[in-house]
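Lecture 7, part 2: worked example. A protein chain together with manganese (II) ion.
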Amino acid sequence: SRSPWICRACLATARRLTPTVTPKRQISSNSRYFQVSEEVRQAIAEHRPVVALETTIYTHGYPYPENLSLAARLESLVRTNGGVPATIGILEGVARVGLAADELMRLVSSAGDPGTLKLSRRDLGFALGLRQPNGQPFNGGTTIAGTMILAHMAGIKVFATGGLGGVHRGAETTMDVSADLTELGRTPVAVISSGCKAFLDLPKTLEYLETQGVAVATFADGRGNNVDFPAFWTRESGVPSPKTLRDETEAARVIHAHCSLGLQSGLSFANPIPQHHSLPLEVIEAGIYEALQLANTAGITGAAATPYILSKMKEITGNDSVEANRALIESNVIRGAKVAQELSRLEL
Ligand code: PSU
Ligand code: MN
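Predicted complex, written out as C-alpha cells:
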C-alpha cells in the first residue's frame, strides 16, 4: 500500500512525462487559516476510514449543551463503527478539520453568539480574514457546502450529515437554491444524508442536482429499485430516487470509480430515516405549512431561512422533529463509517 522509494531525478522525469498524474491524496499543508488534526492527517495518509462531520447543526440547529452531547455521540458512533471522525468548523479564525474535544466544546458553547456564523463557500474568506467589531476572531459552523470544501482540502471523501439543503419552494421567484447543491456540483465528496427537508421542493432539487452532474442515489436495503428520494423526516416523498444502492459496498464502489476517473463533482447518497422514527406525513405537511407561513410573515429569507424553519418545526411538532433529526443523523453517521471502511479497502 505504500509507494516505493523513487529518486528525485526519476520523479522529476516522471512528472514531466505524465503531467496529469495526481497524487493519491491531496493534503493541503497546514496554514494560518487551515489546520488538520494530527489524528485525521495520519488516518488519511494511511488510508484508514475517515468520516467528516459538519457543525452548522451545532451552531445553528441545537442549543448548548444538547449540541455538545450530539457532537460527542456522533464522533463516538464513527469510532465504534471503525472510523476516525473529523468534525469540521471554524474556531477562533482558523478552519479546523478534526476539532479536538476542547475545541469542539469552545465552538458549540458559542452557539447563538453574534460572532458565531453559519458558513458556506461564500463566507469562508470573511470569517477567516476579518475580525468581529470587538477585535475577536470569528467562530463558525460550516454548512454541508462549507464542510465539503474543507473535507476535500484535507483529502476526506466521505461526509455524513442530517439533511441536504435544496431548491426552496417558490425558488422560481426567490432564487433560493442552497449552495449545498452547487458545491455538490464541484467538489468530489460523498455526502450521506437523509435527503432534503420536506419544506423544500424535491423535484426541482433533483433536477438541479442532475444539471450539476451530481451522482444521486438512495440506500434501498433490499426494497428493490423503486424507492423514493427521502424527505428527511419521512422515508416516502412521492419523488422516485434516480438510482438505488443495495449497501455500503455498492456506495464505496461508486465513490471509488467516480473519484478514480477524476470527476470533480460530488455524490449525494440518501439514507432514509429509520422506519420507527419516521414522522407521519400529515404531521410534517401541516407543520411545514405553518412554519413557511411564519417565515413569510416574519420576512425571513436567505441564510436565515433554514434555521428559522427548523426551529419553528421543532415548536410545532413539540420536539418530535428534533428527536427524528437525532435518529436520522445517527443512522447516517453509522452508514458513513461503513462506507468509509469499504472505500478504504478498495483504496489499499
Ligand atoms: N439540516 C438540519 N439542520 C441544519 C442544516 C441542515 O437539520 O442546520 C444546515 C446544513 O448545514 C445545511 C444547511 O448545509 O442547513 C443548508 O442551509 P441553506 O438552506 O441556507 O443552504
Ligand atoms: Mn438559501
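Confidence is low (pLDDT under 50) at residues 19-23. The first strand starts at residue 34 and ends at 36. Keep this in mind for problem set question 3.
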